[in-house]
Amino acid sequence: MASIQERSVNGNGLYFPRNGEYSSVENFFLERGWNVKHGDNGILVGTSFQSVLNCGDDRFKNGEVPEDHRYGPSIFGGAVGIAALRREPTLEGVRRATLDISALGYRAGMHGDVENDELGCGFNRLLLNGYFNGVVGTPAIDLKTARQVLDEHGGSYVDLSGIHTAVGLNFNFVPGTTILSDGNNFGVDGWFALLIDGVEPDRLLELTAATVEALKPDAKNVTIYT
């Protein structure tokens, strides 16, 4: 699988969350052949203090993971994803991401699954296989050691079970909120990623879309919450 490349939309950077402009988000997905709609914010729930920043995996379902793994914000890859978004896909990058997540009132998270251990996270598997090299640089992360870094700083790891069943992506920009997974959608809380210094909107969009396209090509349906 070839590496994706970093790009901007129409040659311009995206600053949608910082100036209230979201049309470029919609256009980004439309230009990639996605179906786009805007969601009802009534589905949003408030995040909980000291809950876990998780991956956007669709398998974080009720009754299958601890509650603190459901009521935190979600970004593909969790803490490793934040490091990648900052172009720091290294153990030191994971450590810095973990500390910055903690400073914002949450705990850093990672996941695997019962069949593949740490490589059960599809984002992290794509990252280590070089799929994102053109966007984030070459990764230098041992996931077992990254998991230890999280443990040392109050983070949390969980193994998921089952296969991906998502038919779409929930992409949320309402601060302090998330969407509880029911297995039908991947979920990314873009508002949280953009609180982290060094995370660029273009890169967030590219990694979010590319992850879904690689893991579940038939799930190119995004619902945007603003």
> Helical amount among residues, as a percent range?
25-40%
How large is the share of residues in beta strands? 15-25%
| Residue-averaged pLDDT | 89
Structural class: alpha/beta
Rg, alpha carbons: 16 Å
Number of discrete helical segments: 9
State the low-pLDDT regions, or none.
6-19
Number of strands: 9
Number of domains: 1
N-C termini distance: 33 Å
For the report, how would you describe the main beta sheet? 4 strands, parallel
Widest sheet: strand ordering: 1-9-6-8
Report what the structure shows.
With 226 residues, the protein is of the alpha/beta class. The chain has one domain. It is 33% helix and 16% strand. It is built from 9 helices and 9 strands. The strands form 3 sheets. The protein has a 4-stranded parallel sheet with strand order 1-9-6-8. It is globular. The model is unreliable at 6-19 (pLDDT under 50).
In short:
The chain is of the alpha/beta class and 226 residues long.
